[in-house]
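Archive entry. Fields below.
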Amino acid sequence: MQKPIATTRSATGIPTGRLAIWWVLASEVVIFGGLLASYLMFRLGHPEWANAAAVTNTYIGAFNTFVLLSSSFTAVLAHQAAENGDGKLAAKYLMMTIAGALIFLVVKAFEWSYEISHGYTITSNGFWSFYYTAAGLHAAHVIAGAVIMAFIAADAARGRELQRVELIGIYWHFVDVVWIFLFPLLYIAK
Amino acid sequence: MAQAATVETHGHEAHGQGHHGPEGILKYIWSTDHKIIGMQYLFTGMFMGLIGGLMAYVFRMQLAFPGISVPGFGVVSPGEYNALVTNHGSIMIFWVAMPVLIAAFGNYLIPLMIGADDMVFPRLNRLSYQIFLASAILILASLFVEGGGFGGAWTSYPPLSANENYNLTRLGSTLWLSAVALEFVAFLLGGINFIVTLMNARAPGMKAYDIPLVAWMIVIASILFMLSVGPLMAGAVMLLFDQTLGTGFYDPLRGGDPILWQHLFWFFGHPEVYVVLLPAIGIVIEIVATFARKKLFGYKIMLYTAVATGVLSFFVWAHHQFVAGIDPRMANVFTVTTLLISVPIAELLFVIIATLYGGSITFTTPMLWALAFIAEFLIGGVTGIFLGASGADIYLHDTYFVLAHFHYTFFPIAIIGTFAALSFWFPKMFGRMMNETLGKIHFWGTVIPFNFIFIPLFVLGLGGQHRRIYNFQNFPELAEMQPLRIVATVSLIVMLLFQIPFFYNLFHSMRKGPKADRNPWRSNTLEWTTESPPPHGNWPPDQMPKVYRGPYEYSHPDRAEDYWPQNLPN
Amino acid sequence: MPGHTDPKGERHGAQHPNYKKIYFVLLGLLVVSVLGPEFGIGWVTLITAFGIALVKSSLVLQNFMHLRWEKRIMKWMLATSVVLMFLLFAGVAPDVMKHEGHRWVNDAALAATARGIEAPHHAAGDAATAEHAAGSVEGEAVAAVPAEQTFDAKNAYGTVCTTCHGPAGAGDGPGAAALNPKPANFGDAAFWASRTDDHLVKVIREGGASVGKSALMPAWGGLYNEAQARALVAYIKTFKK
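PREDICTED_STRUCTURE:
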């Protein structure tokens, strides 16, 4: 499909794709914000949840934080490569980012199966309900982001639509930022 | 704007091959043309409006003649009554008002009004409609599953909505919630398209204050929606888990809190009413300026007031919860903010009235609808003030007074606004004129009965009649007001019958109406400079319009003509 | 568009920060935020955990997402969405976070807190978590409260059961008018003849449907544990005629 003339215009000076991604982020901030604000209200109002929170493994959480931070690093390197016109290098860095996403998800899978097998399920109590819901919503965004990133990497490797590397990168960094807040909320605050 | 000039040539080359959309029936599945997508939203929304209206017919028949076998439906059981009332509300707000006012007219008008050839993300646009259509199918499906449709009110308060032992509609409640969530996703995606298109894709020369206000209003509404729906999305996920997984987010027995849902819902629910109001006001502005042949009284006032309304709308939500058990000190705060918000809204109406003053008015069908909007919405707004004061609300909450108030606001917004917009832009959309006589018959046959439906409801509400009750004959002190209920129901039936001339007018004029030229109303905005209906791409790629002035230069003293299109160099 | 040059020429070349340096700073901050709670001091944990989260996210936003060089309008929009979240919290927390206020009390939430959650016996295989449980930030770990010491069955009945079962257990509470079948009448000898204590504990904790009776009798097991339910059964026996 040909791009409409409209897509190429930029009365604000911000390219349309990037403008759109920022608006997507604004809407995601209020979605996660709503969920986390609700969690915070319950958590602060129910000191007994500390017992449930004690179970989460801080080191696994920290490792996953490290993984996501590193994947953000590779994502921004991909952006740098794309800006220099090097589609193949950008694709390589994007694939590394996707690898980071996969590691994150695999670690989470092990973490959750351990917790579930020990009886800490989503219905165990309020803390666990929020734990699985918040981390689950986050993980869904990780999966969606990784899938889209794969398509963009495929295009970039062929030198096409390189401006999208930056856009998926911005989305990816946001997913990282959400986790930066989830980590202390779910793992450190005990 | 040099950059735009460079981009124009690029665009011209891109379009050099004379790009056409898909043809035939496939056009409606695969087209990414904003006009086609706009029509899809329009007709889906109107169809859902019919369904919502028929639901109202059924439950109003039950209320007026309790126990009757309603023609076309049968006897209404209490569970069915609840499902009808719930889905009437949900459908009218989410599947009629929003798709028609925002998605249909936003899609159709915004690219045309800013001189663009399409939305900036046409495929995302198509996806948004398809997700919306899926949500519409889901909500309709929810009515036919085992257990019946969800009956817990459009506000869906837990524990009733969360616990299938209470709501008795295990499948219906989950489908209902999923439909609403999916509709939110569709409008989030669509909103991004509108916002980015307006911000970026304007014609060369079109500065921010040259944008027609209806386009601004739709975009401001999209922003309001986007920022307010997030917490409710989170809340809906939590409610979905309560319903299906047995979590206890809202279950006090499990450490949850039902009030949390209420807050999350109304944090969205209140801005939502301005999400639908602002586009309707935008539509009225376009019509009034055109048919009063007068420059809008205060463009910037309107714009900034609309923004102020949007901002303030985030500070008033708990006025829906005055008697829910919120802290009374919060109630004080919300009373003040609620009464405050009436000021900018009144301002919006004053500016429209000031525009009319001294104008050269023609009472075409669109103009009649626009004037009716002002009169009816005024009543709705004023009665809202009674409800915004927490003291009065203690008596009035959950009575028919509330119901009449919000119908006096929603009906002008969703129904009058739709008819106004349709009758105004019909010539552009279909290249033909609608019949004025039928239009006027439809107008009077809708507006007069409307008042006879809802004024009795104000009286009933003040008399203590509560909402969501299946049969008022069970309440001796309310039973004697039955004649008022019958008046309301009969008026509804009359109003529904008067929609027949409208549908006849609509479908007949589409094919056989007198041909319309480009600008039958002699209006200024860019959509009237192209053919009726506009071709794919709206203008030939080398003739994309440039803008030289604002949209409301009517009856300019230096000019012989009483209008001055935006795209004329002089 | 390959190698796209932004027409206004902004944000290229000179405006790339040293990504590697930022990355290592982020990792360093991560280490600090993990070590902070080890000290077991409340405000230290608060600063290292949440303060650092703010710093880290700011670094990612400004540098990786290039917000520092972005047009002001987008910074305003993002700031607005964040501010709205504070507004949401401010407006809702007085009702949801706090469990009592101006002439209202949230009995269910207070009961949930008093009931507590049992501390885990095996803290997920690492000693650090056990230490966290001991010196928790949010307050002392609350163990389950033994029912016999603090549970007031009469008070609980008055708060929770009276509505349907009536103040004297006759099944004639105000809510009973709308119910069919009517709630159980604890004064009725025939009722007691056909029920065991165990059966009644099950009904209280798992609801009427669990024993093939009306689902309108809710499951109160989330509020009352086994011992508390037995205390309630003991109390309603006093209605026996």
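CURATOR_NOTE: The beta strands of chain B are 69-70, 74-75.
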